[in-house]
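Exercise 3.2. Students should predict the tertiary structure of the chain below and write it as structure tokens, then compare their answer with the key that follows.

Predict this chain's 3D structure.
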Amino acid sequence: MRVGVVGAGISGLSAVHELAGGSEVVAFEARDEPGGIVRSRRIDGHLVELGPQRLRLTPGIESLVDELDLREELRFGDDDQRDEWLPDLVSGRRLGAFGLTEPDGGSDAGATRTRAVLDGDEWVLDGSKAFITNCGTSITSIVTATVRTDDGISAFVVPAGTPGMIIEPAYDKLGWHASDTHGITFDGCRIPAENLLGQPGQGFRNFLSILDDGRIAISALALGSARACLELSVEYAQQRHAFGGPIGRFQGLSFQLSDLAVQVENAHNLTYKAAWLKDQGRSIGQAAAMAKLYSTEAAMDAARVATQVFGGMGFMEETPVARFYRDAKILEVGEGTSEIQRLVIARNLGLPVE
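Answer key:
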């Protein structure tokens, strides 16, 4: 299978393509080869970065179209599963959801309580998931979920609209207003036995490996947000006048933007190093954690600095700075909190951390 996609953002979703004025932002390609789905993580990262930086899309809009994790999940499936679900996901005609987090299992993702029992030629799922993106849209096609079975934590594909899978009302979030985010309840949800994704008991291990990819994506998104805040602040500091001249001439402001420029450059280098390692087929756990940790904290710093530079206007919803301020915080939480990233880094240093 070979699928070419042209559009804006990672998935080429038509809505974002329209937001970009119908312009062709990029063309990218996904192809299914023995052993999994092949895509360039450096290209993916660049596209995600471009959303906030060039189109002024905030992370909430980017999250609507970024299905990086889901397409990677399907590499653990068989040919029939990929042939059935992958084309629509890669083309952007459909969205999918990644069901890992539970009400009592966030950072402790191994504390999965959702269960599946094999009943004849069907699996019966019971339990709940929390903070699941893209599970309630009109074009959602599937939800993948980690579920505890007799063999351990396994992964399943649940088609949208399956009886017993209840999509809860959307969360009322601080930011990421464009992101479709719901809880999910499984109540006697029956799916065919062949909807098991990968080997029994390997779902959690497989999903954890996918998180490294997701961390590179979040790092790229944070990088784009930070860069956009820097560019907007520099432009505003040149245009806004106070005390007889542009406010950018004051060291108190210009030094903050200088420091921010260094953070953006560092975030860029860490992000693209991790992406390059992924494309080379090398281990990325440490690099992805470093990139995600640094870039997301830089995005928070950038949003705070930009809001301060804009002053009162930075607090107004009509400015992109206000949206970046609201949307930046979740970057330090999703795909593993900053604390989890520091834990991963420390363990890779050989420290006996718990």
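Discussion points: Residues 312 and 318 are 11 Å apart (CA to CA). The mean pLDDT is 83.
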